[in-house]
Design a protein that fits this description.
globular
Length: 98
């Protein structure tokens, strides 16, 4: 299994149709994250770029996943296979049952 970065160019003007699809986009992102396919999802402060890290067997599998995004018709994706992707693990405190 490989990791892929997908960089999306977003539209400069976001109309009501775009804005109305944002909640559905968040649901799809959460679903992909829960399944372990989507590892990270980041939006630039100017809302012009979006970056995702996917875990997949192929670029085709990544393209199939992003085709399910409700906002995909507004996005221009660029897929790059990564050699590696380091992330800081979330630190969850250990609770003793004693």
């Amino acid at each position: 299994m490989s990791q892929y970065m997908v960089e999306f160019d977003l539209p400069t003007v976001m109309d009501d149709e775009f804005a109305n699809q944002i909640p559905a986009q968040r649901v799809k992102v959460d679903e992909l994250m829960e399944r372990g396919q989507l590892l990270s999802y980041s939006l630039s402060v100017d809302r012009q770029k979006l970056w995702c890290i996917f875990k997949a067997d192929s670029e085709l599998e990544v393209m199939e996943s992003i085709s399910e995004f409700p906002l995909i018709k507004y996005m221009t994706p660029f897929v790059t296979e990564l050699m590696f992707h380091n992330m800081v693990a979330a630190r969850i405190p250990f609770f003793s049952l004693n």
